[in-house]
Amino acid sequence: QSALTQPPSASGSPGQSVTLSCTGTSSDVGSYNYVSWYQQYPGKVPKLIIYEVNKRPSGVPDRFSGFKSGNTASLTVSGLQADDEADYYCSSYAGNNNLVFGGGTKLTVL
Amino acid sequence: QVQLVQSGPELKKPGASVKVSCKASGYTFTRYPMNWVRQAPGQGLEWMGWIDTNTGNPTFAQGFTGRFVFSLDTSVTTAYLQISNLKPEDTAVYYCAKSRWGGDWIDPWGQGTPVTVSS
Prior knowledge:
The complex is a heterodimer of chains A (110) and B (119).
Chain A: E1 9-12, E2 18-23, E3 35-40, E4 47-50, E5 64-69, E6 72-77, E7 86-93, E8 99-101, E9 105-109
Parallel strand pairs in A: 1-9
Antiparallel strand pairs in A: 2-6, 3-4, 3-7, 5-6, 7-8, 7-9
Chain B: E1 3-6, E2 10-12, E3 18-25, E4 34-39, E5 45-51, E6 58-60, E7 68-73, E8 78-83, E9 92-99, E10 106-109, E11 113-117
Parallel strand pairs in B: 2-11
Antiparallel strand pairs in B: 1-3, 3-8, 4-5, 4-9, 5-6, 7-8, 9-10, 9-11
């Protein structure tokens, strides 16, 4: 299976909202509501922030929200804060007990 | 709480083998799959596959067949990743991570094991 497509970079100013996209195919994102998002700071372990398209694990601020339409999923970060600056990866179930990640988006807070 | 603790950094020469361990605690080990994820320097996350901790049956992602082995020692709730015939391009941080079932979202993650392959 091919990696999901994410823009390499995105940016926004503090307080703004930014939306990160994640494009797959009808074999992964388009077929299953098992899209998840991970936040990773440099040199740190990835952290799950969204699962099953739009659910947040305990402790994740509601500034993070997920959505899916067709073959594209998105992560919106509202009220941008300095510590939202990180790499964000999407992933999706891809059938046959397989998982696929996106290439990641580096979010810069201006 | 659920915790995954991995073995320490490895420095290996090309052609050698490496075995990374992932000690699980805080849950019933054999109920949930263990995934392996690779992250090369400056690169993104690559899902390598998972092992059914109940049966020991592995599933490998494309590109991770042949030199990669997933194994278990359920008596010590530990999963292992072994890579043989190491190549410089295997230099990466390797993470283990738990999921509810094969292909599902993965959480939590181990702290990562850096493997460096260099002559």
